[in-house]
Amino acid sequence: MAALAKTIPLEQYFAGRDPLARTLFDAVTAAVVSIGDAEVRVTASQIAFRRQRSFAWTWLPGQYLSGSVAPLVLTVDLDRFDTSSPWKEVVEPTLNHFMHHLELHSADDLDPGVLACLREAWAKAG
């Protein structure tokens, strides 16, 4: 059995970061809550939204990349390649798990297509 990553307080994750990142995280959380119940697991590298398994994550690209980066990235796990939203990148790390990465600059980036993908991922994670 794999060990779970050590969880940290949400305030610690965002400490010293661009305040917009926290605002965007709150918008993602509100979108998930509008769909249904989900656990939030905060680690040093990311914040996972999960039911029986994780279905979406947010992370701070400034932790890993230099230069001008988005305040926050949303990653959504689907079993298909979605073309309905302006994903920055889509990768298939394992068969039929397509990780869709979206740079968030404002709450408006959570468009209807992204919200539909979050609903789909939430449903499949339960």
Describe the structure.
This protein is an alpha+beta fold and 126 residues long. It is built from 3 helices and 6 strands. The protein has helices spanning 10-14, 19-35, 112-124; strands spanning 39-42, 47-50, 54-59, 72-78, 89-94, 97-104. It has a 6-stranded antiparallel sheet with strand order 1-2-3-4-6-5. The longest helix is centred in the N-terminal third of the chain and has 17 residues, at 19-35.
What labels describe this entry?
126 residues; alpha+beta; 6-stranded antiparallel beta sheet; 28% strand
The biggest sheet, with number of strands, parallel, antiparallel or mixed sense and barrel status, is: 6 strands, antiparallel
Helix content: 25-40%
Question: Termini distance?
Answer: 20 Å
* Spatial strand sequence of the major β-sheet: 1-2-3-4-6-5
H/E series: HHEEEEEEH
Mean residue pLDDT:
93
Q: What percentage of amino acids are in beta strands?
A: 25-35%
Shape: globular
**Total helical segments:** 3
Poorly predicted parts:
none
Please give the number of β-strands: 6
Which structural category fits the helices and strands?
Answer: alpha+beta
Radius of gyration: 14 Å
